[in-house]
Amino acid sequence: MAVPKKKKSSSSRNMRRSHDSITAKLSNECPNCGEPKLPHHVCSSCGYYKGREVSEAA
Ligand SMILES: [Zn+2]
């Protein structure tokens, strides 16, 4: 296994990890029921996608 030449400082390590806690936000809302949903995903509350029902409502 490769051995690192320089030890990362705790500051650099923490700066790298500063984005680890960021999670994807629900930026779209369903045009059918208005619930927040992931873009390009079937709505999890009504099962609609592109104006028609594609799956059973959860
Ligand atoms: Zn919906």
Automatic annotation (TrEMBL):
InterPro entries for the chain: Ribosomal_bL32, Ribosomal_bL32_bact, Ribosomal_zn-bd
Composition skew (Basic residues), residue ranges: 1-16
Pfam families listed in its UniProt record: Ribosomal_L32p (PF01783)
Q: Where is this region: Disordered?
A: 1-22
Q: Which UniProt keywords apply?
A: Ribonucleoprotein, Ribosomal protein
Q: Which family does it belong to?
A: Belongs to the bacterial ribosomal protein bL32 family.
Q: Extract the PANTHER family matched here.
A: 50S RIBOSOMAL PROTEIN L32, LARGE RIBOSOMAL SUBUNIT PROTEIN BL32
Q: What is this protein called?
A: Large ribosomal subunit protein bL32
Q: Which organism is it from?
A: Oceanibaculum indicum P24
Per the record, the gene is rpmF
